[in-house]
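A quick aside before the break. I want you to see a complete sequence-to-structure record at least once, exactly as it would be stored in a machine-readable document. Don't worry about memorizing anything.
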Amino acid sequence: MERSEALFRTVLRLGDNSLVLGHRLSEWCGHGPQLEEDIAQANIALDLLGQARNYLTYAGEIEGKGRTEDDLAYLRTERQFLNVKLAELPKGDYAHTIARSFLFDAFHLPLQQALTKSPDERLAGIAGKAVKEATYHLRHSSEWLVRFGDGTEESHRRAQAAIDGLWMYTGELFAPDEAERTLIEAGILPDLASIKAEWDATVARVLAEATLVRPADGWMARGGKDGQHTEHLGFLLAELQYLPRAFPGAQW
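That is the input. The structure line, written in tokens, reads:
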């Protein structure tokens, strides 16, 4: 694969991950279990949206076809999105949301930290801003997972069930596709094996503090990086893309 195509697909994926997960977290706006968490999830969703804008803008420039961040967010079909499946799953109960955020955040922070050292100055610059946000995101999801896991019998049960149900979607985070392998070989993207080692250490530490059991590794759901998604992404995009598709070219 040509390096320019590999860079486009990888940057697009980084943007898609943040956009799709940010939309999922925004679904808690007005529905949070308490006011502080309602605001916290909305703010985290906005952080992810900002990251998505930066990545999608850069992806459009790499592609060179004149597509803007809005074109890439609102005018692509389900099969053209390259996000991991973990990001698109329904929000579930609050334990499910926190567990999914934790599993993603524990991956996202070391990835952004490594990208700050990328020879691609644009990627390094975007990651430099994202690191500050990702640090808070991981602290927030970790503290809540511990609160649930080491809380009441019911909160512990729900947290464990969430971790168990989400585990099969974590393998895709660390399984490089052709585009990622091309950039890893070129030194533009960090080796995902090194990110996995940091993720494993964070997961082990937080699950132990939360008195939760790490599920056994087994079959892992993949395909999102190739545009093969769960049925949930189509419904998410129908909501996310409604306005610009219903009113093409609409301006505020």
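Two observations worth writing down. The two ends are 40 Å apart (CA to CA). The chain has one domain: 3-246. We'll return to this after the break.
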